[in-house]
Amino acid sequence: QRGLALSTDCNPRFCWLDPYLGAQHAVAEAARNVAVTGARPLAVTNCLNFASPERPEAMWEFAEAVRGMGDACRALGTPVVSGNVSFYNETLRDGPQAIPPTPTIGMLGLLEDISRAVPAAFASAGDAIVLLGETFEELGGSEYLALRHGLERGRPPALDLECERRLQELLVTAAARGLLRSAHDVSEGGLAVALAECALRSGLGLEARLPALSIRPDALLFGESASRAVLSCAQKQLQELLSLAREQGVPALTLGRIGGERIRIEPGVDVTLAETHDVWSRTLPEALA
Domain boundary residue among 96, 117, 138? Predict the structure, then answer.
């Protein structure tokens, strides 16, 4: 029995810093969020939200975002089948104040067998945790830079659309072969946040050691390098998954294993699930208070 997978995505901060690259990221992440379920991304709709096109800089942002969206869709084989444009998203109170360029992408995917659908939550203690994709020293436009240092600047992470295509093909193939217990994309917040989200959704802790790369520890934990995903699989299927990744030209690294009541990520993270859940559950109420 077949099923559909749907995702919406956009990072307005990326688009404000670089509308062309930011729009490409929106397409890539929306497609990746479909692929991690095991579904193949097929087509795009959009809602393009921008300020007044009567101002040259806003019209430039719009033109660059459309160009980036088109290039990414062609590279990933996901045609735009519908969409709309919303201009004049701004106010003149206390001087012109506009929203950041926000080309929101809706991605549709097809899952050939819904019994093979892959959840984001970890599944079982003892399973192996695998990182797909490469991590670089990229903090520009990141959540970490904005929340920890109050800065919204720099260049968004580089995006190689061919690497992105190979990653998504690997995710779909591995899911169809029944190799994946869970899969989650790495995006806002970086690798540490992606691992924590998988743990929180499942109530299962983890122990992971991040690769010894010659980059800053905060970039290793919270950088938002593109074209990455965190997977879990049964230990007996780990080598088959790693072999498949090699065949398809996708870097893959075993990080650790699932289990326990703590989130331990070397270097630098050691918290209980209860502490993490408490911080997570208070975020929205405190933001709206």
Answer: 117
Residues ≥6 apart with Cβ < 8 Å to 162: 75
The last residue of one of the domains, among 117, 135, 168, is: 117
Q: Which residues contact 51 (CB under 8 A, 6 or more apart)?
A: 58, 61, 87, 88, 89, 90, 98, 99, 101
- For tokens 């029995």, name the residue: 1
Comparing C-alpha atoms, which of 186, 256, 174, 184 is closest to residue 228?
Answer: 186
Is pTM beyond 0.90? Reply is yes
- Report CA Rg, the chain: 19
**139 and 163 co-located in one domain:** yes
Same-domain check for residues 68 and 172: no
Pair 284, 204 in one domain: yes
The mean of the pLDDT values for the chain is 96
Strands 262-266 and 206-209: parallel
pLDDT tens digits, 235-285: 999 999 999 999 999 999 999 999 999 999 998 899 999 999 999 999 889
Q: How many structural domains does the chain have?
A: 2
